[in-house]
Amino acid sequence: MNHRKKKKLVFPIQWLIIAVVMLLCCVPSMAKAAKPNIILIMADDSAVDNYGSYGSRFFKTPRLDSLARSGIRFTHCYSEPVCTASRVKIMTGRDNVRNYVAFGTLDKTETTFGTMLKKAGYATAVAGKWQLHGAPNGSLAPECGFDTYCLWNYPGTERRRFWNPSIMRDGKLLETDEEDYGPDIFTDYIIDFIGQHKSDPFFVYYPMVLVHSPFLKTPDSKPKPANRKATPLDNFQDMTAYADKCVGRIIDSLEAMGLRENTIVIYTTDNGTGRSLTYPFQGEKRAGEKAYASEAGSHAPLIINAPGTIQPGLVCNDLVDFSDFLPTLASISGAKLPDVELDGRSFWPQCLGQNGNPRKYIFQYYYPKFQPAAKAHGGGVNNNEIIWAQNQDYKLYTDGTLYAVADRYEKKPIPPNREFNHPAERARRMLRTAIDSMPASGQKLLARKSQNKSND
């Protein structure tokens, strides 16, 4: 009897030991699964209405449209109106009123999402367009937390970004010829990086050179009839399709490597379409407004796809500002936020189908290189600072001019209304409070101006 009782006790203990061992063996892979891979792609000079999932029938973007259908699409994401301002903001989680220095410059004292994610244990890579190393006090990729890089507009490169491109890869200038196409080199580099880090959590930042001017043919462009030359719009249309193809190649590679289920792909753009272009959209002709502080200059697409994590077909109407990307990446990865004053908030809960903490407004500060952009509402430093706040319906400049967001080219200012509770007047008061809550001028621009005076 006693012997049988002991036997009954032995088997449960053995099974318990086996279960514990198996659990311990699984801990490393569980820890890795807790850190999803992240790929952030940002196209250059492409407004929200250049994509099929946002209503275009002129531009063909099937791979991105598929990502939108099987993920989440945000309808009110806003970049800055030009590249440097957007790149500084998205990388630091801080508004340009705090940290804008000069066109083509990211102040090296700033902390970027690359550094944040590297500290969190991610392998990090950047490929594509840099243009952040300018004087004074510009930044290089390793200083921004990237383990490896493959970049155009980087120290030592020249102006060619598409055919026969000038590209710096980890400190060495690539040898290229007329048959080499820059976007293919960048996409290949990213795919190779992913293959080298299949067992590590990785973060890839892909600021594309597409679809910026010059508007040239792509490897997929078809010859035009003998009686017609390809127009810049023809080539831009082809370039948009090729950017979509590059995204598709990355997705296919993730699938082939068995990494798709644990990789979050984020797609956006840095500002509106180039000003030289006019294109059809739902029965009207739309003009590119890059560099203007208009709806057409800063309304960007935002598509996020994560199989098994994000429910397919979500559409979110909450506001998203470019300062929100860094805290969102922290939410995804579990990374510790930089110990600086941040302006963004995470929109990751909305991606998971939760309410989250949606914005009531977006604050925007813009110091344009393109002087005509400041003509209407510029002020402050050199009469060139443009400041506004907006929600989904209304937009208020610091000079008091109010527009409907639907007024794409800002042709009809909204006059004050005597009715206190009129929606426009409620928005005017709220947006004025938002503007007044932020610095009234660029903090680093003022510091530079003060330093220059002391050196005179």
Q: Quick gist of this model?
A:
This protein is α/β, with parallel strands linked by helices. The chain has helices at residues 2-33, 62-69, 83-92, 96-99, 113-119, 182-196, 232-256, 295-298, 325-333, 348-351, 423-436, 443-455, and strands spanning 37-43, 72-78, 123-129, 148-152, 168-169, 172-173, 202-207, 263-269, 278-281, 284-287, 299-305, 314-321, 362-366, 386-390, 394-397, 402-404.
What does this structure look like?
With 456 residues, the protein is of the alpha/beta class. It has two domains: 35-360, Alkaline Phosphatase, subunit A (3-Layer(aba) Sandwich); 363-455, no CATH class. 32% of the residues lie in helices and 18% in strands. The chain has twelve helices and 16 strands. Strands 6-5-4-3-7-1-8-11-2-12 form a ten-stranded mixed sheet, with helices on both faces. α6 (182-196) runs parallel beside α7. The radius of gyration is 24 Å and the shape is globular. The model is unreliable at 1-11 and 23-32 (pLDDT under 50).
